[in-house]
Every structure is written in C-alpha cells, then in structure tokens.
Write a structure and sequence with these properties.
The chain is α/β, with parallel strands linked by helices and 158 residues long. It is built from 5 helices and 6 strands; from the N terminus they run E-H-E-H-E-H-E-H-E-E-H. The protein has helices at residues 33-49, 68-79, 97-116, 130-135, 144-156; strands at residues 24-29, 57-62, 83-91, 120-127, 137-139, 142-143. Strand 3 (83-91), helix 3 (97-116) and strand 4 (120-127) form a beta-alpha-beta unit. The chain starts with 23 loop residues before the first strand and ends with a helix.
C-alpha cells in the first residue's frame, strides 16, 4: 500500500531495456488539458531519457479518454509501433458518467493490448477532484506520465 504523501514517480534508473530503435506512440486526451498535457510532456521526456529517439515517438491527441482505446488500436495497426501509452484524466462528477467512462476506457485499453499483442499502457487518472489530478500530474504525488513511460519500458523488456 502506498503512503499518503509518497511521490509515485520516483524510480531508480531502469536498466531493463535497450530502448534505442523502439517506436512508441503516446495518445493523450485533450479533456482536462492542464493535467493531460503535463502528463504527456513528462511521459515523452522519460521515454527520451531512456533512449527512445524523438522521431521514434508518435504523439497523437484525441478529444477525450473515451477515444483512447480506438486511437491506440489504429496506431498499432497503421504505424507498427512497439507499444502505446494512453494518457487521460477522468474526474468524478455528480452523475454516474464517471463510472461508465472509467470502466469503458480501462476495459478498452486492456482489450486492445490483448487483441493486438502489443503493450498498451493505462496512464489514465481517475480522481475524485481536480486537486487529486493536479497532485498526480506533476504535484506532490509525482506524474502519471512518468509512471506510464516506466511501465511501458518494463513491459518492452519482457
């Protein structure tokens, strides 16, 4: 169980993979852009830090988190990428819309990876409020974009 004030993005250097030559797509939802674009920037910088060249990173934006699974599958089929990282932010509201979207997105992302036999990373924040999203997109709890990039690199090392 994580501690309340732990920075979840702190990680040691990952010697798991030689990332040079790998192609990764980063798909980012435009909904809640202050949050998602911060995650996108951190994700791409982390991938580059571990040796993935900028011209080997496809950066694609979609309207919202619901569109992430479809975009991930299209990038796998059309661009022959080694992995896709999906970044989004779904914040609880007053209706059940949050529940439907969060479930559909998580299932969709998992299914694309299993169907295509390509790592598809779930980098989607599902928070109760905007403050929690801020804390997980570059605040006191780290940046989910970094965590998603690290998860991607670890899966590519398998």
């Amino acid at each position: 169980m994580s501690e309340k004030k732990k920075n979840l993005s702190e990680c040691e250097n990952i010697p798991y993979i030689q990332a040079k030559g790998l192609h990764v797509a980063v798909v980012t939802a435009e909904w809640n852009p202050d949050i998602t674009f911060s995650m996108e920037k951190a994700c791409i910088l982390t991938l580059q830090q571990y040796g993935i060249a900028s011209d080997c990173i496809i950066n694609q934006r979609v309207a919202g988190s619901f569109e992430l699974p479809f975009a991930a599958k299209q990038l796998i089929l059309q661009k022959n990428v080694d992995a896709v990282i999906c970044l989004g932010c779904i914040i609880q509201g007053e209706t059940r819309h949050f529940d439907f979207i969060a479930q559909a997105v998580s299932s969709g992302i998992m299914n694309v990876g299993l169907e295509c036999n390509v790592p598809v990373i779930f980098g989607v924040l599902t928070t109760n409020n905007m403050q929690q999203a801020i804390e997980r997109s570059g605040g006191k709890h780290g940046n989910k974009g970094v965590e998603a990039a690290v998860a991607c690199l670890k899966l590519l090392a398998i």
